[in-house]
Amino acid sequence: MTPGGRNARTPVGLILAAGRGTRLRPFTSSIPKCLVVVGRHPIVAYQVSSFIAHGIFEIIVVIGYRAAQVRRYLEREFPTVRFQFVENQEFASTNTLVSTHLALGAVTSDILQVNGDILYHPDILGVLMQERERRHLAACIGVQRRLCGKEEVKVAIGRAGHVTAITKLIEPDAAIGEAIGVNWFSNEFLNSFMTAATELLATGRRDYYYEAAIERVIEHEPGTVGIADLTDLAAIEIDFPEDLAYAETAVYPRIAAAYAMLPIPRRRLT
Questions:
Q1: Range of the structural domain that residue 246 is part of
Q2: CA-to-CA distance for 50 and 44, rounded, in angstroms?
Q3: What are the tens digits of pLDDT across the range 147-171?
Q4: Is residue 112 part of a domain?
Q5: CA-to-CA distance for 22 and 29, rounded, in angstroms?
Q6: What is the pLDDT, as a whole number, of residue 226?
Q7: From CA 208, how far away is CA 187, in angstroms rounded?
């Protein structure tokens, strides 16, 4: 494949970056969460660089809070990437299901989706795609096996290893670990996902997370969603100031060398 090209199964990237990040204040008082710097670069710079490293040059970015800052930074620092910016104008009152539904309306490709507040080792995307291919999955959820609390989005699986539930509401001792917010969805799965999302939003509720639509698909199409075990690769969801501090001291040192080999911007956020 030539640089910037796509083959039939090369997915499109999707970054969900519309939220206000209120729990991360004061770091998000003047910038969106995805532009918060960890180590040398904003979170989103690592994400886009990881996509490029896996041959993905088409990326949908859902923006909302301080949208112009995200657009300006990405277009300036990654001129070879074909960005499609989708604006969630209800970012202050909705959650990730609305953002995902807006982004996927016209998509006809497979999707590699990441939440805009996840810092992760770039190899995670490769593991996710390899596991999907090996098990012929319609969708693959990135999971790290650990004991979770109430705040994390947790995953439960059945005997065959397929996902049976994905929600914060799973009892911690019934979960295998945390869904870290990095996922692969086939175009075929997205058809079912969009139907489920439309049905959920038709109820009038706008505060659903996208995992609610995944669960709805699983109810009707069991055995189609699997996991990729990412426990051995560093990743963290940065929700609170203490998460940011941990990312700086414990996660960034484990991923810095890998990103130093990738086409990541060489200047700091300005």
A1: 12-260
A2: 10
A3: 998 889 999 999 889 999 999 999 9
A4: yes
A5: 8
A6: 95
A7: 22
Tokens of 64: 């909302």
Q: What is the DSSP string of 91-125?
A: TTT--HHHHHHHHHTT--S-EEEEETTEEE-THHH
- Alpha carbon distance 188, 38 (integer Å): 36
In a domain, 2, yes or no: no
Parallel, antiparallel, or unpaired: how do β-strands 154-157 and 163-167 relate?
antiparallel
β-pair type (163-167, 41-42): unpaired
Look at residue 181 and tell me if it is in a domain: yes
Quick one: which H or E segment has residue 142? strand 139-144
Tally the domains of the chain.
1
Q: Under 8 Å CB-to-CB from 163, ≥6 apart: which residues?
A: 141, 155, 156, 157, 214, 218, 225, 226, 227
Cα–Cα distance measured from residue 208 to residue 101, given in angstroms and rounded to the nearest whole number: 11
- CATH code, 16: 3.90.550.10
Task: Give the total residue count for the chain.
Answer: 270
Strand 177-185 to 111-115 pairing: antiparallel
What would the two tokens of residue 35 be? 């532009």
- Strand, coil or helix: what is 184? strand
pLDDT 10s digits, 191-241: 999 999 999 999 989 999 999 999 999 999 999 999 999 999 999 999 999
Asked whether residue 175 is assigned to any structural domain, the reply reads: yes
- Cα 191 to the chain's mean position, in Å? 19
